[in-house]
Design brief:
Blueprint (H helix, E strand, L loop, with lengths): L8 H9 L23 H10 L5 H15 L1 E2 L9 H7 L1 E2 L1 H14 L4 E9 L17 E11 L2 E4 L21 H4 L5 E2 L18 E2 L4 E8 L2 H8 L5 H11 L11
Parallel strand pairs: 1-2, 6-7
Antiparallel strand pairs: 3-4, 3-8, 4-5
Helix pairs in contact: 2-3, 2-5, 3-5, 4-5
Length: about 260
């Protein structure tokens, strides 16, 4: 059982009937947006530390490491929070930390866009075993892509040569943002689609079985959220953010 009452009502309707834009039609951008406010000094500071890397991909990897080290993961539900605010707080959700990487990418003139995915709420059950009835039925995920060497590079393929070891199970202290540094995260399926495709080897992790709907590509996450809303309604966000916004995934109780 999952909650539909917590989801934005208008967003539920829009997601059901909105046309999907083809990937080739979405060029992305390097411009600043209300969420991706890359003109802020904190974003510029990270950009200044990585811009001298040998390649754009190396710059993105370096920025990912900086954000992972300096922004503590929490369960914040405010997907439209400005990146500068996330950096000042020093904590952020998986979505907010990915937005920070997008903002830095734009600051170093790497175009970004996002893919909108509706992910089955059950995917998050391992993180909230006692709160399953309150987990939204579907979670809207803005999955970033970066224009590198003339092609679009999803964040799940940013790192190569993943180390063998524990598979990604969406529990404990590791978030999707952290996991991409050691394993390839794939939402499209492949020869192992439908199976337990993250089991055991620590390599590529196929999560396509968790996707309820693919909403297509968008020039930025602001446009995605304008069109489809956030996962939780405003009332739910207001009530839960003071707790979830400080709850670190590695802890069993709110920090």
């Amino acid at each position: 059982m999952t909650s539909r009452l917590l989801m934005e009502y208008g967003a539920r309707n829009k997601r059901a009937g909105a046309p999907v834009r083809g990937a080739d039609d979405v060029r992305g951008s390097t411009r600043a947006t209300p969420v991706l406010d890359h003109d802020d000094p904190l974003v510029r500071a990270i950009a200044g530390r990585v811009v001298s890397e040998a390649t754009p991909r190396e710059a993105l990897r370096a920025a990912h490491r900086i954000i992972a080290r300096n922004v503590r993961p929490v369960y914040s539900v405010e997907d439209r929070r400005r990146v500068s605010r996330t950096l000042r707080l020093g904590r952020g959700s998986c979505s907010q930390r990915m937005a920070a990487l997008e903002a830095v990418a734009r600051a170093v003139r790497v175009r970004t866009r996002v893919r909108g995915l509706l992910v089955d709420g059950a995917f998050w059950y391992p993180r909230f075993p006692r709160l399953k009835p309150f987990v939204p039925a579907q979670v809207l995920l803005a999955w970033p892509e970066f224009r590198v060497d003339g092609a679009w590079l999803p964040i799940g393929r940013l790192f190569t040569g993943p180390a063998a070891g524990r598979h990604y199970a969406n529990d404990g202290g590791e978030t999707l943002f952290d996991a991409v540094a050691r394993t390839g995260i794939d939402w499209d399926g492949g020869p192992r689609a439908g199976a337990n495709a993250c089991a055991g080897d620590g390599g590529s992790c196929d999560l396509s079985a968790q996707v309820v709907a693919d909403l297509g590509h968008f020039d930025d996450r602001d446009t995605l959220f304008d069109r489809h809303g956030q996962t939780l309604c405003r009332t739910a966000r207001t009530l839960t953010e003071p707790v979830l916004g400080r709850w670190t995934p590695s802890t069993r109780t709110p920090a």
